[in-house]
UniProtKB/TrEMBL annotation:
Record-level GO BP terms: rRNA (guanine-N7)-methylation; tRNA methylation
Keywords carried by this UniProt record: Methyltransferase, Transferase
Matching PANTHER family: MULTIFUNCTIONAL METHYLTRANSFERASE SUBUNIT TRM112-LIKE PROTEIN (PTHR12773:SF0), UPF0315 PROTEIN-RELATED (PTHR12773)
Molecular function, one GO term: methyltransferase activity
Family per similarity comment: Belongs to the TRM112 family.
Protein name: Multifunctional methyltransferase subunit TRM112
Species this protein is from: Plasmodium yoelii yoelii
Signal sequence range: none
A Pfam family it matches: Trm112p
Superkingdom, natural source: Eukaryota
Length: 77
């Protein structure tokens, strides 16, 4: 895990969406975070897991903002 990379990604994602999606997959994240959390290795590891270690093979991905649904087949959407 590259902490600087995770911090950079966090600055670009909608954390509320990440939190709610991770929760659906049983991944525990803080409901919100602040700059102090960006120095917490445990927090950064949890975010890394939520972003890069969950692999969906079949199903769909629905955007919570616009409600557009994207099919996932063989791990690709």
């Amino acid at each position: 895990m590259n902490p600087e990379f995770i911090k950079n990604v966090l600055s670009k994602v909608d954390y509320e969406v990440l939190y709610n999606t991770a929760k659906q997959f049983g991944v525990s994240l803080l409901s919100s975070y602040n700059n102090n959390h960006l120095e917490d290795e445990g927090f950064l590891n949890s975010v890394h897991h939520a972003l890069f270690k969950i692999h969906i093979m079949e199903g769909s991905l629905t955007c919570p903002k616009c409600n557009i649904s994207f099919p996932i087949k063989d791990g690709k959407f």
